[in-house]
Design the sequence.
């Protein structure tokens, strides 16, 4: 299946930038979530972790 996609993808000019864009988006989201997890208020975390258990 990938050979089918690869066959047509080689004909597209500028397609080689997409993996770089995907990596940049992934790293941005990952670092933002890491920053949020480190900087989050501990009381907020305690409140949110009990939400699924409340009825």
Sequence:
């Amino acid at each position: 299946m990938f050979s089918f996609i690869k066959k047509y993808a080689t004909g597209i000019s500028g397609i080689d930038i997409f993996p770089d864009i995907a990596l940049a988006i992934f790293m941005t989201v990952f670092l933002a979530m890491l920053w949020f997890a480190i900087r989050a208020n501990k009381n907020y975390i305690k409140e949110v972790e009990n939400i699924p258990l409340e009825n």
Summary: The mean pLDDT is 89. The CA atoms of residues 26 and 32 lie 10 Å apart. The chain has three helices and no strands. Residues 14-53 form one domain.
